[in-house]
Amino acid sequence: MTGLPRESVGDSTLSLLREGYEFVSRRCEKHQSDAFRTRLLGRDVICLRGPRAVALLYGTAGLKRCGAMPWTVLNLLQGPGSVGTLEGEAHRHRKSLFVSLMVEGDAADQLACAFEAAWAERLVFEATPNVLTTASDVLARVVTEWAGLGEGLAGDPRFRRDLFLMSDQAGRFGPGVVHALWRRSRAERRIHEVLDAGVDTGTPADFIVRFEEGGRPLPRDVAVREILNILRPVVAVGRHVAFAARILVRDPEWRDWLRTVSENEMTAFAEEVRRTSPFFPATTAITTERVDLDGLTLQPGQWVMADLWGTMQLERCFPAAEVFKPGRNLDWRRADECFVPQGGGDIATSHRCPGDRTSVALITAALRVLCRHVTWRAPEQDLRISMSRMPAKPANGVDLTDVAPER
Question: Could you give all domains of the chain from N- to C-terminal order, each with its CATH number?
Answer without folding.
Answer: 13-405 (1.10.630.10)
